[in-house]
């Protein structure tokens, strides 16, 4: 049975994850009627299967590691981690996969929620297939924002359809700790899940096609993560890959993983952490001249560039600019303003760092990898600078030489690196690896975004004894490098 309902709003948002919620919140705040369409849980991937549950698994693991290594505390850490308690805490953090709280917030913000699978049906039109089997027809006066995010990419293995496997969703929501886990991948999901499950009692084998982990961060940081994983017992197999995988005894049996070199690994679970694909396969892109299943290209206002009329926006992961929740929410705040300004006939502020452009996507994208040690980076890395043909001065300092780091861990091992534009004397990139460095990242992000000069940074005094004193040591090192360079000329 089909019910036909015709509803017109100023703005239609496809996807009620953090990105879609932020777009809708901004447009409603601007006085635009807004409807948000969601086929799964309101709150999206981040809330239930990614950021929140993964960090709930990782935090006790990292805390246990720090405590067990600290003098006077390590002796008090007896016995293994209480995995049942960790999983209960994980369930609490995701509200037991119940989105009532998020639904209540949507209603309180004045946003209309329509549950079901939304598909574009031409310019400014969306058709929603509801869970009850009905159909809701929606029309937008001003804008449709696609905020459908991504899903896990899968390798082209034979028999994959019959193989029961994990993606990031199963890895963060598993109800039992597997005895043995094979992970295919070397990115953030792979290393974070290897860190978590190894510490929770799983024997982990990580298989990577390349020669190292975390290919987009500075090599010193990825090598530190690899060393710690090895010392924790993770079996790292580099320059390899999976040729075949099967469960010969059925979906509940062991998984037999054949590597590219012909070797066999027998495990209980197999996690594919091999990247992300846009969730655009079945959202009606063909009805507006776009190819289904592809990333949606945008300009810096996040307006779709291949669709006429400035009515379609692609926000968050789906535009492939920066696949991070916080960056998607940043884009959403901009898009909310862009839609509101266009609806009101106000000219957009598209100057660099203007309110209508996502400049940070190119210059200052921060990311933390919650491994042991943590890795935090923003802006350019040395390889990024080389590819872009940019001349930068590289400044390194061992974080363990800072008094605050020794207070954190007497055997602290970590490194900081900043990249400096020698002409403008501003920081264009920063990477930190070590315990507790995630909290250093926002200061680096502000320095890059604010284009704070090195001369001005000398007057930003770090408190003692904290790890943030690393900023002073980096500046001193740069001063000494410049003096040495001048003396050798």
TrEMBL record:
Required co-factors: FAD
UniProt xrefs under InterPro entries: Class-I_Pyr_Nuc-Dis_Oxidored, FAD/NAD-bd_sf, FAD/NAD-binding_dom, FAD/NAD-linked_Rdtase_dimer_sf, Pyr_nuc-diS_OxRdtase, Pyr_nucl-diS_OxRdtase_dimer
GO BP annotations, alphabetical order: 2-oxoglutarate metabolic process
Pyridine nucleotide-disulphide oxidoreductase dimerisation domain mapped to chain residues: 365-471
Cofactor binding, per record: Binds 1 FAD per subunit.
Binding site for FAD: 55, 118, 317
EC code(s) of this entry: 1.16.1.1
Every FAD/NAD(P)-binding domain range: 9-326
Listed name of the protein: Mercuric reductase
Organism for this UniProt entry: Nocardia macrotermitis
